[in-house]
Amino acid sequence: MISGLSPLIAAISALLPGLVIGYLVRHLVASRKVTLAESRAEAVLADSKAKSQNILLEAKNNAFKILEEAKKEEKERNSQLSRIENLLTKKENELEQKGKEIFSEKEILKHKAVELSALKGELEQSKEKQLKELERISGLDREKAKIELVVKTEEEYKDDLYKMTRKLEQENREELEKKAREILTTAIQRYSASHIADAMTTVVSLPSDEVKGKIIGKEGRNIKAIERLTGVDIIIDDTPEALVVSGFDPVRRQIAKLAIDKLIADGRIHPAKIEEMVEKAKNEINEKIKEAGEAALFETGVGPVDPKLTYLLGRLAFRTSFGQNVLLHSVEMTHIAGMLASELGADVSIAKKGALFHDIGKAVDHEVQGTHVEIGRKLLSKFGVDPKAILAMEAHHDEYPYAILEARIVTAADAISGARPGARKDTVEIYLKRLEDLERIAGSFDGVEKSYAIQAGRELRIFVTPTKIDDLSALKMAKDIAKKIEEEMKYPGEIRVNVIRETRAIEYAR
């Protein structure tokens, strides 16, 4: 047994020194690492202490500097406050001294006011005594003496006062008239417009003379249809490539011209097509009327108004007054009224609006009873126009008083526009009035569908409703109308009354 353990003991004995040596080596290595770590830690700690001391030293230096600066600022502030306090003390002393002086002066003034009041009382008493003494000596009281003095002065200087008054009035009148002439001359010179009066005929150009035969139609049915639907007289003569549309109403002439132009362009000319083209021409004229109203508003600078009022304004483009186009006359008046209002310091917008719409009643005076001024007032009120503009327009024929300055300006502008050389022709207006009266008399009879004054007023063409008027009634109506014309109107020569009764039978094949 013992002999079996001997090898094991020998092996352990051999390994033991190696293990001891290994242990010692590892222990030495670990000790060296610890020593190195401790050295490094001590170095880091020393460095940190040095840095912290430097930072602490720098912070102390900065704190010292800040403290020094704060002390310096505080010293300066205290010095400044001391100076301000000294100044305030000085001012307070000065104010106190001035207050004492003012109080002293106030007391002196009070004493002087008392003395003046006493002196005033003494003077009043003395004056009263003197007046009483004068009244006693003269034998007149104060009021009578005053009246007598005024009367004597008036009698003595009456002629001189009258002459001076007349002289001042004359000078003022001359100066005012001179100024008025300058203003009117300036306004007239600043605005210049043409004064071409509307003619009573319109020429329609034709592509060839062959078209004349188409327009006349078989047995004249086409030309009769045009005349019946438009109310104008178509004149076809030897003038090459032209025909003449005659009529006193410019709207009717323009409708007829447009319809004929459309018929020529279409090439088909017969009564049914004529009716169609006349209807289209009427619609186009309505558009032109609207455009004319809008153009007038734009040109004059008058603010936007109700579209219906704009349309009525445009209708004036086809209306004349003493041969002068009413819309052009109104536009011209608007410019002149605006310039006059500017010169006189009046309201320019009110003057211009009153001038532009002063004749608006003429757009419907053939449809509504009353003067064009009264109709115009109602229309402008209905469409919400400024009441001042109504006051400005209503007095231009002296039917209403001049309520505002702009009313006189509108009247003056109306006179200037109408009085321009060549602007108006009385004979033309009288002639047109006679034609309108002819149509008015015909329209007053029951059963009349349309009536047109043609041939320069020598013929009155009347279309009646066939279901209401028979042939015998048509004959009687012609006599009655002729008699009424003779009773109510004055005219040269004779007037032919032509009553037309036309029966149509219309049916549709379906």
TrEMBL record:
Pfam families: HD, KH_1, RNase_Y_N
Any one Gene Ontology BP term: mRNA catabolic process
E.C. code: 3.1.-.-
Entry-linked InterPro entries: HD/PDEase_dom, HD_domain, HDIG_dom, KH_dom, KH_dom_type_1, KH_dom_type_1_sf, Ribonuclease_Y, RNase_Y_N
Keyword entries, A-Z: Coiled coil, Endonuclease, Hydrolase, Nuclease, RNA-binding
Source organism superkingdom: Bacteria
A cellular-component GO term for this protein: plasma membrane
Record-linked CDD domains: HDc (cd00077), KH-I_RNaseY (cd22431)
Keyword Lipid biosynthesis: no
Domain HD: 326-419
Coiled-coil ranges (or none): 56-129, 154-186
GO molecular function: hydrolase activity; RNA binding; RNA endonuclease activity
SUPFAM superfamilies reported in the protein's UniProt record: Eukaryotic type KH-domain (KH-domain type I), HD-domain/PDEase-like
Annotated family: Belongs to the RNase Y family.
PANTHER family: RIBONUCLEASE Y (PTHR12826:SF15)
Task of the protein: Endoribonuclease that initiates mRNA decay.
NCBIfam families reported in the protein's UniProt record: HDIG, RNase_Y
UniProt protein name: Ribonuclease Y
Organism: Candidatus Yanofskybacteria bacterium RIFCSPLOWO2_12_FULL_43_11b
Primary gene name: rny
